[in-house]
Write a structure and sequence with these properties.
Helix content: 40-55%
Oligomer: single chain
Strand order of the largest sheet: 1-2-3-4
Structural class: alpha+beta
Number of strands: 4
Number of helices: 2
Strand content: 25-35%
Shape: rod-shaped
Largest sheet: 4 strands, antiparallel
């Protein structure tokens, strides 16, 4: 084969610049996926803690609604409890009993659960009316 045949032959393979550009594009894609995974994990954790706070408030409301004598209901504050109401958690739960209608036949229950996670203060507030005995 002569020199002209070598020059006219098609180039085969990739140049170094093409490989570097392809790797840069691939790296940007992988970084975007990694960042999305981090955001997803963080939001999933936040949702989990919020769900635990809601369940903590709901359980308090259900316990108080099952008390027969609504006139015996009192305010309370619990600090440093976990999602089951046991000591040693990140939650604080404040229960407020109101008597908006007067008399002894019904009460309004307001449960506020506060917590701090990742430097952010959050809270959940649930309200319910009760006449006692599960109503």
């Amino acid at each position: 084969m002569n020199l002209i045949g070598i020059i006219n032959r098609k180039q085969q393979g990739y140049s170094l610049i093409e490989v570097v550009i392809a790797m840069a594009i691939l790296s940007i894609g992988f970084l975007a996926i990694a960042q999305m995974q981090i955001w997803s994990t963080r939001n999933n954790s936040t949702g989990n803690v919020t769900t635990q706070a809601i369940l903590l408030a709901e359980s308090q409301i259900e316990n108080l609604k099952n008390i027969g004598d609504v006139s015996s209901l009192t305010d309370s504050v619990e600090i440093g409890i976990d999602q089951h109401g046991n000591p040693g958690g990140i939650f604080s739960r404040k229960t407020t009993i109101l008597n908006p209608l007067g008399g002894n036949f019904s009460r309004q229950i307001v449960v506020t659960v506060n917590w701090k996670k990742n430097g952010l203060k959050r809270k959940v507030v649930l309200e319910s009316m009760t006449q006692g005995g599960g109503i």
